[in-house]
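Quick review question:
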């Protein structure tokens, strides 16, 4: 009898040991839907590296209460249907409690799924207005169209004194909504958009639009776009010798835009976070830039900065609320003044992250703070 009790007790101890070992080896997984191939692969590349670096930093520092963090990545190709398929997989097969998604069209497509599965959707590199209003499970850590348009409206009207400008915008969901938001804000404050036109993101010759732009003789031109198309249209505006002030969105100082625009970005104003790769203004940014260069052999851009911060914030939310959809949702709502590389981040009731938005200028191919530019 005693022998039998001993064997049963030993078996229980072994089972408990196996369970404990399994728990000790458990990892916390975050899903990520990024454009790793296709026309916006450059964006996805930096976004992926930002998440990788954040994960490595978190795990090197001991993980989340001793458990490692892991990123499960799916390639959306910046196609909504691909993003939807990936989200379904993350939810039903991987059973992940939180997913990060990039790009407006993809993120808008998966919002209903976040609501359906009751999974946290942390969006970034998403400017589409009102995305967090569509579901209580959706958060955003990126400059919204409203915040960028609002900051640029003030700068153009108050700082530059321009009451009449033209607008060129990329012909997709992001570009069209950004144009409408800016136009409404600008004209509500007494400004007037005297001419506007769209351009195709796959286009390479925008001279017909530029010819009409030149004929309008605007004092300023606001160009809403990103990636290769933005670079080409800036270069062709310079080639047309249009003498006017140029303003743009946060996607301006990226390698692809700078490569295709060449010197045409010189003197262009754009909206940005406080993140500055050339002249880090905080210890957090300085450390991030140094680690990124050491890890990947090149400097990060603002896309990498955003995904680094998104990953770090989710890790903090897990620490606060636990590793479950409800816990992460609750934890994110408690993020106040988080020290990010894009600046101090707070998640308000709107779930649209609050952080400083500023206007910068390109000088000699590099983003420069307006205040710093005045001293030169």
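Suggested answer, residue by residue:
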């Amino acid at each position: 009898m005693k022998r039998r009790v001993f064997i049963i007790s030993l078996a229980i101890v072994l089972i408990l040991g196996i369970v404990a070992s399994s728990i000790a080896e458990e990892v916390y997984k975050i899903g990520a839907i990024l454009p790793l191939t296709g026309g916006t692969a450059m964006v996805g590349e930096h976004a992926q590296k930002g998440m990788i670096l954040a994960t490595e930093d978190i795990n090197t520092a001991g993980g989340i209460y001793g458990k490692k963090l892991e990123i499960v990545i799916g390639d959306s190709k910046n196609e909504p249907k691909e993003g939807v398929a990936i989200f379904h997989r993350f939810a039903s097969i991987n059973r992940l409690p939180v997913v990060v998604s990039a790009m407006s069209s993809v993120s808008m497509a998966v919002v209903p799924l976040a609501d359906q599965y009751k999974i946290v959707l942390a969006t970034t590199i998403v400017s589409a207005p009102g995305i967090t209003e569509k579901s209580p499970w959706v958060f955003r850590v990126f400059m919204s169209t409203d915040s960028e348009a609002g900051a640029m409206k003030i700068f153009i009207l108050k700082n530059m004194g321009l009451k009449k400008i033209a607008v060129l915008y990329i012909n997709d969901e992001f570009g069209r909504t950004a144009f409408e938001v800016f136009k409404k804000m600008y004209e509500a404050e007494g400004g007037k958009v005297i001419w506007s036109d769209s351009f195709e993101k796959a286009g390479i010759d925008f001279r017909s639009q530029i010819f009409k732009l030149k004929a309008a003789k605007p004092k300023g031109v606001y160009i809403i776009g990103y990636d290769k198309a933005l670079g080409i249209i800036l270069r062709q505006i310079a080639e047309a010798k249009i003498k006017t002030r140029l303003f743009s969105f946060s996607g301006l100082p990226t390698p692809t835009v700078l490569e295709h625009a060449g010197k045409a970005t010189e003197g262009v104003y754009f909206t940005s976070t406080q993140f500055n790769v050339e002249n880090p203004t905080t210890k957090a940014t300085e450390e991030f830039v140094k680690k990124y260069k050491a890890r990947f052999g090149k400097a990060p851009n603002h896309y990498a900065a955003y995904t680094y911060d998104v990953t770090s914030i989710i890790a903090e939310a897990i620490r606060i609320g636990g590793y479950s959809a409800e816990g992460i949702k609750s934890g994110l709502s408690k993020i106040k003044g988080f020290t990010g590389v894009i600046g101090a981040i707070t998640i308000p009731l709107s779930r649209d992250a609050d952080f400083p938005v500023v206007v910068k200028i390109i000088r000699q191919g590099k983003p420069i703070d307006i205040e710093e530019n005045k001293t030169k």
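Why it works: The chain has two domains: 28-143+281-356, 146-272. The CA atoms of residues 5 and 239 lie 89 Å apart.
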